[in-house]
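step: validate -> pass
step: tokenize input -> pass
step: predict -> running
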Amino acid sequence: MNRADNTSLHTDLIKANIALFKGERAETQRLLQGHIIKNSRTWKDDSNATMIIWLQAQSQNNLDERIKHLELLVANTDSDDYYGQMAQDYLQEEDNYQQKINPRRRRFSGIALGVPWWKAFILMLLGGVITFAGLNILNDDSPQPAAQDTTLAANDEQHQPTLDAPDKSQILVPDSYTARYPQGIMQIAAIEDNSERVTDAGQQLQILPVPGARFYALNIIFECRGLKAICDEPPEAELTLKLADDRLVATRADVSIAGESVFEPIALGRTTTGWVVFEIPLISTIDTLIIMPADEDGTATPVVIELHQQP
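step: predict -> pass
step: emit ->
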């Protein structure tokens, strides 16, 4: 591999990590698939191979696919491999979780492959690339593509807010800010303190905090789990921000972050990403996020994510 290839590889992996931290799983997969196509001949010698498999696993929207990739990683790495250890920990935690909600579930026992692991991984990724290319071909055959693109662009422009505010968000490592409860798994992917991008959810007009206050926003990735087939109202819990002085603050209703995604109803095993916004005093510091799972019989146990040590 020449010097230019090495630089491209380094850049692609950095971009893939950033995309994953932002919750952009499709973009993460696109970057990794492009890397595999460009470097498939030297894949088995790639020093970043286990990291790439880990990224590919974590970028899967489907739980079964994610576990399949992680099992592949665990079954074909040394015990001292960093990403293999993380995969093993994830699978063990997943197994413990499944045992609680389904005691008859088969425990994780690894996988058996009839081909070298690096070839199996290439085949999985190339299969996704071929599918993606096939869909693009079908789209190219659709009637009047130019007129269709113009209409979509016009619609997008109508829904874009006129707000021109800076993005102050700080990306977090989601695994470090994770909570599990019966309805699903919540990860905090980013925070935005003193956000200026808060808008009315309906008209997308900028909203300002009251004098002496600021907006504190959290970017949340939620995966629908447990016994529910459909998660209608992600994150299926009431969220409360606890300040350092023990005051509690509820989320602001009917607001959003300009230009960012919002929660959507999802089925079991799928994920959705959105922002929650709190309005807090300028002089306050953050302590924890309290998660009260939605519960019909009133027996839910709150779950806490520590935020006072955030970067």
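step: describe -> The longest strand covers residues 213-224.
step: cleanup -> pass
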